[in-house]
Design a protein that fits this description.
This protein is an alpha+beta fold and 429 residues long. The protein contains 14 helices and 22 strands.
Length: 429
């Protein structure tokens, strides 16, 4: 272990808590400052119809195995669960169709399957198959996925398969998402394999057996609750309702100002969204925020018992602004058990116009699920808003000596990516 230092961590979301635990375990003096009255950030809970539901992430990607390993390390291995084996659907203004189960990020790995033909027609399926026979030139991590998919798979596969899936994850136009945004080195993989479909097939085959995502019985927020206890046991101090207004370099140390108090530290970890990083240290970061609102409905609707649209819906061209819906009680058996016959659905909205989605959420849910829903069937409704839902990746995670960026501040999105970054971290060593 190196010299003992005093660290201040700004933000008690998953990334901040992981950093605090790592530093405390290394013997450092660690204080975490969180502006909210509770910890967890996007991996926290809220109450809907008497149920403690995930307010943000409700699953984690299996890629790399780091998120599952973290859950097991925290004693939650026996509570890891798979989603129900139902397809997700895509709903457009004039069509609804299930996504092929053999795709990777919407890229069809079995181009001539009936599932693919149902979604994009046989002509579209044959056009997508052409990718296997086209040479690859000039592809690297800076290549736009949208432009590459359109060139290699055709418009039908790009617009009806790839775009709904990828835009649902990254909340950006497909043309603005690069191969490097999805995974560093992905451009080289496409170039080596000579095919986008072959790369997708290899990526899918390399994923752990079973579902592409996993959950935790009781909710993903259980992960945060266990991590808080572990970080505190390691010696970290976690202070809530402590908003940070400024971060300043003072000679060889830092001052982190919160509620008129200067917390002095040898080093600082920023574990907050990029817009907050830009506000605290404007010389280090610039950011344009992309927001998302999640509206959760508790419904009494026997028509939903059969899960008519599987585990959820990706919306294309929905005039209301809802970009996706998760039928949570169809996706997670543990939640269906807890809901006692009622249904929980969650809609995701991009809210660049700051519109409150609650007034039309019931109508949007009915449209996306393909069933009539009346006001009398609505048992409860709650809305949460998250900032910087799809941050751009950051190249330098220590932009100045002693200032470290983790999680959203480092451009990372999702539990799997954050857990993987922590597993590779040498912070505090």
């Amino acid at each position: 272990m190196g010299d003992v230092k005093t660290w201040t961590v700004v933000g008690a979301g998953l990334a901040g808590l992981l950093a605090a635990r790592r530093l405390a375990r290394a013997g450092h003096v660690v204080t975490v400052l969180e502006s909210e009255p509770h910890v967890g950030g996007r991996v926290s809970r809220h109450q809907v119809d008497g149920l403690g539901l995930d307010a943000g992430a409700e699953s984690f990607a299996t890629r790399g195995g780091h998120a599952a390993a973290l859950a097991i390390e925290l004693g939650l291995g026996d509570r890891i669960v798979q989603p129900e084996p139902l397809p997700a659907w895509v709903v457009t203004p004039d069509d609804a169709y299930p996504l092929p189960r053999t795709g990777w990020l919407g890229v069809p790995t079995v181009s001539l399957s009936r599932e693919v033909a149902r979604a994009i027609g046989w002509a579209g399926a044959l056009r997508a198959l052409a990718d296997r026979f086209m040479p690859v030139h000039g592809v690297d991590d800076s290549t736009s996925l949208g432009e590459l998919a359109r060139h290699r798979l055709g418009d039908a596969a790009t617009d009806r398969l790839v775009a709904p899936v990828v835009q649902g994850i990254y909340s950006r136009p497909l043309e603005d998402i690069t191969l490097g945004d999805i995974a560093p080195g992905l451009g080289d993989e496409v170039a080596r394999s000579g095919s986008l479909v072959r790369t997708a097939t290899a990526r899918r085959a390399a994923a752990p057996a079973g579902a592409a995502v996993l959950g935790i019985d009781g909710g993903i927020a259980t992960l945060t609750e266990a991590l808080v206890a572990d970080a505190r046991a390691a010696g970290a101090t976690i202070v809530t309702e402590a908003p940070v207004g400024a971060v300043e370099r003072a000679g060889h140390e830092w001052k982190v100002w919160s509620e008129g108090t200067a917390h002095r530290a040898d080093a600082v970890v920023l574990a907050v969204p990029r817009p907050i990083v830009a506000a605290l240290v404007p010389d280090v970061a610039r950011a344009q925020a992309r927001h998302v609102a999640l509206v959760t409905l508790a419904l009494e609707s026997p028509e939903l018992d059969a899960a008519p649209r599987g585990t959820g819906v990706l919306a294309v061209g929905n005039g209301s602004g809802a970009k996706a819906l998760t039928h949570a009680t169809a996706k997670w058996a543990w939640l269906a058990r807890e809901a006692h016959g009622h249904h929980i659905v969650r809609l995701s909205y991009g809210i660049d116009n700051a519109r409150d989605a609650r007034p039309h959420a019931l109508e949007d849910a009915a449209h996306l699920l393909g069933v009539p829903l009346e006001e009398s069937q609505l048992r409860d409704i709650e809305r949460v808003q998250w900032h910087d839902s799809a941050p751009a990746r950051v190249e330098d995670r220590e932009p100045v000596p002693g200032l470290h960026l983790v999680g959203s501040a480092a451009g990372l999105s999702g539990i799997a990516a954050i857990a993987a970054a922590d597993a590779r971290s040498t912070l505090g060593a």
